[in-house]
Amino acid sequence: MEPIDAEARPKEEISISYAGRIFKQVQEVIDKTGGQVGALIRVLQQAQGLIGYLPAPVVKTISRDLKVPLSEVYGIISFYHFFSMVPKGKYVIQVCMGTSCYVKGGQRILDALKKERGLEPEGITPEGRFSLETVRCLGCCGLSPVMAIGEDVHRKVKPSQLKDILNSYR
Amino acid sequence: MRPLSSVEELNKLREQAQARLAEQEKKIQVKVHLGTCGISSGANKILDAFVRNVESCKLSNVVVLKAACIGLCGREPVVTVIAPGKEKVIYYDLNEDKVSRIVDEHLVGRRPVMEWVLPLDEPLLKLQEIRVMHNQDLDPMDIEQYIARGGYQALGRVLTQMKPEEVIDEVKKAGLRGRGGAGFPTAIKWGFVRSASSQGKYVVCNGDEGDPGAYMNRAVLEGNPHSIVEGMAIGAYAIGNVRQGYAYVRAEYPLAIETLSHAIAQAREYGLLGKNILGTGFEFSLDIFPGAGAFVCGEETALLHSIEGERGNPRQRPPFPANVGGGLFGKPTTINNVETWSNIPQIILKGADWFASVGTEQSKGTKTLCLVGKVNNTGLVEVPLGTPLGKIVFDVGGGIPNGKKFKAVQIGGPSGGVIPIECLNTPIDYEAVTALGAIMGSGGLVVMDEDSCMVDVAKFFLQFTKDESCGKCTPCRAGIPEMLQILNKISRGEATLEDLDTLLELAEMVASASLCGLGQTSPNPVLTTLRHFREEYEAHIIDKRCPAGVCKALVTYHALEDKCLPCLETVAGYDAGGYQALRTVVPELIPERLVTKLQTSVCAVDLARFSMTVPAKNQSCTKCPSCRLGIAQMVRLLDDIATGKGNPEMLDLLFELSDTMKVASECPVGKTAPDVVLFTLGHFRDQFEEHILGKRCPSGVCQEALFYYTVCPLRVGGPT
User: Fold this and answer.
1) Mutant choice from B37, B329, B461 vs A, greatest count of A C-beta within 10 A
2) For residue A147, what is the nearest residue in chain B, using CA coordinates?
């Protein structure tokens, strides 16, 4: 996890209008859910849904507007696996390391991804297309080993198929 | 839709919905099962293909419908076809090509394509008792289908005819116990919260199903969401003073969140949630709360913290969530698992006696289980509690694939333990499983065969709990890594027998001193493997050997003639030709590292040569000359080509020799021996020519000339 002040930005240039739009949307989310139960987690979830990750300025805005200390917000971000303060690739690869997938060779998928694209868990490819996470059980144990890229779940993945699978994402 | 204002209106709607369903049943129904598992196997494409085909054939008597997962997860995509007056037909492992044939032969020609049909008398289907999953053949997005099946009738009955105490009594009589883990009697839990004096109470559905290997709650959330909504509303009425409920669903289940959100919105629209439900003045709202990916949030106090918008840290109990000051926002709260809530409407509707008609003395009803790992029928099954483990694995699950030997079942995820082969007769109920040192958990069964190392399994689970520990209390935060270190030492062969004692001592300490369920149960995988497979631990420590061949540091490989040769034949002499076999079949047979190596650096000449030297030559009985001499001749030719002494005529000679052998040999050995040579010659002639004309081996294999050693699975992976 990056320190909170290191303002991690995605590789591509962010225009001012883009940042402005994002802040406006985040503000809407805050206004909408502000008074609700568990608002902080919901706001963080939706903000991450909009941007793909939680950049430090956005986190600061959320902290200020929900009147929750920054330290507490950071505590929650670092506690839940779902949240990230570093940018993610265009496609997020999730390799399942649940019991069933582990027994059926999830580790071999990780090894092959490292060989194929130099991807390590929590890493990102230089061009920013893929980033890799390991997850605890995607709930598709009947089809193990399982790997999800974005919303697509790939079943019974063999390392030899990885090249073709990755090439189909542009 | 105008909200329903009375039970009579609900009944009227039910009749209308039933009439619509009956209308539908007059046609041939094609139900495509679209759970997460189905969709990831391409069920959406199958759905499109059916719609397209049915349209293009102008079949007006066929309807294509969406339905939920029926549990055959290893055989997705699955489609059920129901023709009026006929038994249903289940097709599995479908693809788009198969769809057009099914449309032609079954939907038009009225003859099922038997070769793709799952026989209905298979133990997998016959031995199951479908109760919780009884609506999986409906469209979960359509509340009216649920109402047609008697949905929300239980809620209507409770609100108009039963006192809250009677509801609790009925649940008590049914003997329903919590389906999420320890099996605490549901009625008693409700009673606690009912008797707590407080203004405002809550009900919560725990859908943070984090155990690896378990996904039955996902199936219920995706397939029967209204049963949860109805169950929670009934619970809210029985407990009293409850106006608000929360369903906590983990973020990793996007489809489940979508389906349940939709169900809640629909129920609200129909006046089955909100103010004045069915005109009785009863008020209850339900909201969904998506989790954010922390395993510990499955623990009830951590889950409550998470809903309150804080870190999901557990806290000391008492006060229990049922007590004043212990629940959500300090109010008494009932937390039940998805499956528990889902059972409630049926208990009210069909009666406690019906519910208790299956199961054992102490554990009534059915349980959904996830059967995964090394078992033929992976997927979701629902069996009566008390079904023997062996029956579940071998009859329902269809046994172990590839003729391997059953070793153990891991039940209950990281909090559970392993059950070894000696205990196959154990009935799966709360007491029996606990007696073996495991827990029922939410019901994930991971089957392991002889290739699984128990030290490795224990290591895996401890790594999991170590990562997921919230870090609040020391025994869990510091004790688990300490245990893991000892296990790592054992798997490297560096441990002593004293380490086992330390491990046991640590396990006891972590189990007794940790704050919450996660820490208290985390040593279970270690304790149960030690209890049932101590000899395996000792083999690692004393003999420096891993019997299952998993712990890399302890595995060495030797080539054994009687084992290696048959294997080499399978690899290189496979029917369709060696190289093809290596590309397609071998991934199942030999380690992936080798397959990658073969694909990138295999030399066709060397493969051909190898196929003639080892498998063919050793199998030949030397009785008929075409085989005896043909093989020797071909080996010589291929030797020459491999060492750069070849000439172009040799290739023609190889073809000629192969033909002769195929025609003139007396038995299959001689007839099939040249297959690999022919195959490689046909597909990789350029490689042969490079050897002959360029005097070089493009893949650099022929210099080593010992290709076949690298093919042997017993040798690969050894010390390098």
Assistant:
1) B37
2) B40
For chains A and B, what is the number of CB pairs under 8 angstroms?
152
The CATH number of B22-119 is which of 3.40.50.150, 3.60.150.10, 3.30.70.2740, 3.40.30.10? 3.40.30.10
Which chain B residues have a beta carbon less than 8 Å from that of A114? none
Instruction: Specify whether the CB–CB gap between A119 and A125 falls below 8 A.
Output: yes
Q: Which residues contact B712 (CB under 8 A, 6 or more apart)?
A: B557, B559, B564, B567, B568
Q: CA torsion sign, B157 to B163 to B164 to B165?
A: negative
> What is the pLDDT averaged over residues A108-118?
87
Q: What is the ipTM of this complex?
A: 0.71
- Residues in chain B with CB shorter than 8 Å from the CB of A102 are 212, 460
Nearest Cα residue to B206 out of B314, B330, B302, B344: B302
Whether A142 and B372 lie within 8 Å, measured CB to CB: yes
- The pTM of the full predicted model, rounded to 2 decimals, is 0.77
Between the alpha carbon of residue B623 and those of residues A145, B604, B609, the distances in Å are 48, 29, 22
Tens digits of residue pLDDT in B255-311: 999 999 999 999 999 999 999 999 999 999 999 999 988 889 989 999 999 999 889
Distances (CA, A) of B361 to B387, B391, B438: 13, 19, 20
State which CATH number among 3.40.30.10, 3.40.50.300, 1.10.8.10, 3.40.50.880 fits the domain covering A91-167.
Answer: 3.40.30.10
In angstroms, the separation between the Cα of residue B52 and the nearest Cα of chain A is: 23
CB contact under 8 A, A41 and B215: no
